[in-house]
Amino acid sequence: xxxxxxxxxxxxxxxxxxxxxxxxxxxxxxxxxxxxxxxxxxxxxxxxxxxxxxxxxxxxxxxxxxxxxxxxxxxxxxxxxxxxxxxxxxxxxxxxxxxxxxxxxxxxxxxxxxxxxxxxxxxxxxxxxxxxxxxxxxxxxxxxxxxxxxxxxxxxxxxxxxxxxxxxxxxxxxxxxx
Length: 178
Known about the structure:
- It contains five helices and seven strands.
- The protein has helices at 96-99, 123-133, 139-145, 148-157, 171-174; strands at residues 4-7, 59-65, 70-73, 77-81, 87-91, 106-108, 116-122.
- Strand 2 and strand 3 (70-73) form a beta hairpin.
- Helix 2 (123-133) crosses helix 3 (139-145).
- The mean pLDDT is 82.
């Protein structure tokens, strides 16, 4: 059985800091003017297609099994949020990589006793990170060369909040502001 991972109300990519949801799209005629339709402003669908944003909802998680001294990356999954309640990460039961994950206590971003701290990320962001770290390698080789223990340790050092890494990006001053 694939584990269900509880998260905070919102959950962000540990690599880019972006959300795990599709952006809003505005009407074709003028996407940046306030719309009378529900949803308001959004991206122009003539410039950015909905298909081009599908990667934003796809995620994987990085974790580390201390008993085995082994880092791991899950198979594919998605983040779900039910209005103002807690969120959850649902790993795809059909992905063979998820079948190997034990049904243990996982903690998203928080370093809790008795739990495996995990960090969700966009698969595309991981590919970009791999190419930045190993630009002369083929993508698959670059992805396998990333030191999962080192990456997990770095993210763990920068965490202990519920939804993202503790990195000052300017977002913290813009939250809840138009």
